C-alpha cells in the first residue's frame, strides 16, 4: 500500500476586501482631508485680524471664556463691543469662548479649528454630493462629486472665511446645512424617520450660526420636488418639521437680537446708501451681482473690503448691468421652468435637476446678503460667496463629465477624455491652490492685510483710513524722532486720500488734524478740525484742538476763543479746563487760570500737571 498523502495545510481565511467603489470613496475622503490641510496649513501662524477683534479679543463676553457663554447665548452678535445691531448668531462666538477658556487668547488654536472644520465640511460635501448625484443618475461617475469638492476647497474666494477666524460663522452655517441636506436625502432613500429627524436637528445649528440660513428653508421643497416622487401630501409632511427649528430660531432672534433697535447704515459700510437715485442704486446692485460671478470665474484681485468708493455707481446705460441682469433672470427662469415641469409629472433630463439645484442653492446662499431684498451693512463681500460657490462649481464639472463619460464612446477615446477631464480639473485645482495659499499670507495680521490690498483699494475710503491708522500707531510707538515723523507723514498721505474720496466723515477729519499737529503743520491742522466741526458743530474736541493749534502758532488769544466754545459744549471735560488754565496763564491772566486749574483737579484729582500749574500760579500771585 502507498503511504497515505500528508494532509494539506488549511488555508488561512481570506481577509475581507472592501468593494472597489467603497475603496474609491475612502481614497477620495483621505484626499479631501489632506487637500484642506495643505491649502490652509499656513494660516496656523496667522494672528487675529480685522473683525476678530470685535468678536474675540475685544469682546467682553468672549474674553471671559466659559463664564461668558451665557451672555453670548442671550445677547446680539456685536453686543460684546457695545454695538447695538439686529443680529443673533451665538454659535461661533460660543466656540471662541470655549477656545479662550481652554487656551487663552491665542489665535493658533482658533485657526487650527477653522482648518479642521473646513476639512470636515469637505467630507460632508463629498458625501452629500454622492447622494445627490446618485438620485439624479445612479450610474454617475464618483469623480464628479470628488472634483467638485476639491475645487470647492481650493477656490480662493473662500480665504476670507477660512483664514479670518471670525469667518467661522459662515463655515458652521454651511457645515450644518450640508449635514441637514445629507440626512434629508438619506430619508428619501431609506424612508427612516430617524434620518428626517437628524436633518431637521442639523438645520437648527445652521440657523444659530448665521441668520442667512433661514433662506435655505426654500431648499427643502426644492429638493423634494426634484428628487422625491412621493405624493404632494407626503412631501408637505416632510417640509413641515423644518418649520420647528425656524420658529424656535425666530423666537430667539426676536428676544435677543435687538430687533427693535434703529440701525442707521453708514455710506462707508454700504456705498449704496449714497446712490443719487433709485435707478442708479438698482443698476449698481445688478452690476455687483455680476461682479460676484466674475470673481467666482476669475478670483482676482481679492480684497478685504468693497465699501465706498471701490465700486463706482453706474446706470442702466452700462451694458454690463444688462448682461448681469439677463444672466440672473435666465437662471431664475430656468429654475422655475424645471420645477414646474417636474410638478407637472414630466420626465427631466439628468442635466435639469443639476442645473435647478445649483441655481436654487446659489440664490438662497446670498439672498439675504445680496442687497436686493434689503440693504445690509456691506456693499459686497467675498465671504458671501462661500456657500453659493457650490452652485457655481457643480454644473460646470457635471457638464465636463457628461462630455467625457458619454455612452457609446470607443474605449481609447473615453480613456483620453477621462485623462483630459482630470488634467483640466487638476490644473484648475493647482491654480486655485497657489492663489489660496498666497492669499492666506495676506491675512497674517492687520498691517499685512491692509498694505497688501491697498494696491487694489486706492479709491476705498476705509482701506486708506485703516492703513493710515496703522502707520499712526507705529509713529506713536516709535522712539526714533525721524522714523516717528516718517510714519506720521505716511499716515497723513493716506488720510488725505480718504478725505479726498469722501470728506464727510468727522472722525477722519479730526484724526487728520491730529496728525498735522504731530508733524508741526498747525495751519493745516486748524483746517482739518474746522472741517470736522462743519460735519458736527457740537464736536468739543475739535474746538479744543483748534485752540491748542493757535497756541502753537503763538496766537493764544485766538486759541482762547475756541477753547471757551469747547467748554460751552462740554463743561466738565478736564482736558478742556486744563487747556483753558494754561492759555490764561500764557496770556498773564492768572486770576482766571487758577479757577480753571482748581476745576480740573475737582474733576480729576490725580492730574499732576494741573496740580503743579496751580501751585506755580498761586505762588506767583501770593495766594495759598
Task: Describe the protein's topology.
Blueprint: H1 20-40, H2 52-57, H3 69-73, H4 91-103, H5 107-136, H6 142-154, H7 159-163, H8 168-190, H9 193-209, H10 219-227, H11 232-239, H12 243-256, H13 278-297, H14 319-343, H15 351-365, H16 389-404, H17 411-442, H18 446-453, H19 461-477, H20 481-501, H21 506-518, H22 522-535, H23 540-552, H24 556-569, H25 574-586, H26 590-603, H27 608-621
Helix pairs in contact: 1-5, 1-6, 5-6, 5-8, 6-16, 6-17, 8-9, 8-10, 9-12, 10-15, 13-14, 14-15, 15-16, 16-17, 18-19, 19-20, 20-21, 21-22, 22-23, 23-24, 24-25, 25-26, 26-27
Summarize this entry quickly.
By secondary structure, the chain is an all-alpha fold. It has helices spanning 20-40, 52-57, 69-73, 91-103, 107-136, 142-154, 159-163, 168-190, 193-209, 219-227, 232-239, 243-256, 278-297, 319-343, 351-365, 389-404, 411-442, 446-453, 461-477, 481-501, 506-518, 522-535, 540-552, 556-569, 574-586, 590-603, 608-621. Helix content is 66%, strand content 0%.
Written account of the structure:
The chain has helices at about 20-40, 50-55, 70-75, 90-105, 105-135, 140-155, 160-165, 170-190, 195-210, 220-225, 230-240, 245-255, 280-295, 320-345, 350-365, 390-405, 410-440, 445-455, 460-475, 480-500, 505-520, 520-535, 540-550, 555-570, 575-585, 590-605, 610-620. The protein is mainly alpha-helical and about 625 residues long. The protein is elongated. It starts with 19 loop residues before the first helix and ends with a helix. The model has no long low-confidence stretch (mean pLDDT about 95).
